[in-house]
Amino acid sequence: MNAQIQLIKTAQGHMAVCQDTPTDIDPAWFSVDFWRAKNAVVGSSKGRYTTWFVAFEHSHWVLRHYWRGGLMEKFSKDAYVYTGLENTRAMSELRLLDILYREDFAVPKPIAANIVRDGLFYRADIIIERVEGAEDLVAKLGKGVMSTEQWQALGATIAQFHQRGVYHADLNAKNILFQPAQTEPLTPERFYLIDFDRGELKTPSPQWQQSNLDRLLRSFNKEQGKLPNLAFTADNWSSLMQGYQAAMQNA
After folding, report:
1. What torsion, rounded to 10 degrees, do the Cα atoms 28, 29, 31, 37 define?
2. Average pLDDT of span 197-225
3. pLDDT band at 204, cuts 50/70/90?
4. What distance lies between CA 104 and its chain's CA centroid?
């Protein structure tokens, strides 16, 4: 599986490049200023920090920098201790996405990552393909309800990841996208999981799987506290769990 990712040594570290990525990719591509100079920045998503959407040929990419959180943020906003290329946050996420994408899981297509060394530390960025026409569940549920069948389909989607042993470190309502049915190419509606930073493949276990689900439920309740009209109810969660349990039992 590792052969699908090419490592390219740079003046300051390494780029990791997935299949089908343009061969002329350069470390400059991981800077939003590069895309601004081309008038190719087409949007952004603002959380604690900004994620950028850029236009490349006939698709849109997502450019994300790795920022620290928690107590360590007070010491450095984006520098991590370097213990080897394969241990970097960007490399780990890119490899996981590459495996899942090629196995046809509902994840964004990975493009490349850039790891910049600075003595004992590193900084990193990742580029993935934007899921066309999709919106996160907070945005979707802020505008209206999902059907029972859609909630069950979401539960079944999460179950597929859990059966594969995919641990998502931050499974929340904003890290789930809903993509409506597409006409070109013709595809059915689909739920995607995004942001696999600190995610990993683990031996399937009811303990961490339930912890994942508990985190998601807390997320829905938290978002509803901030947005009272969010279309989420206890019945919706029951439908999600019905879909999840049915998929787990039929595996």
Report:
1. 90
2. 97
3. very high
4. 15
Question: For 65, left (φ over 0), alpha (ψ -120 to 50), or beta?
Answer: beta
Could you give the dihedral angle defined by the CA atoms of residues 183, 188, 194 and 200, in that order, rounded to the nearest 10 degrees? -140
pTM for this predicted structure: 0.93
In whole angstroms, what is the distance from residue 167 CA to residue 155 CA? 15
Query: Which pair of tokens denotes residue 250?
Result: 């039929």
∠18-89-64 over CA atoms, to 5°?
70
Q: Is 65 helix (H, G, I), strand (E, B) or coil?
A: strand
Ramachandran angles phi, psi of 87, nearest 5°: -90, -5
Please tell me which residue in 20, 24, 104, 170 is annotated as part of the active site.
170
170 is catalytic: yes
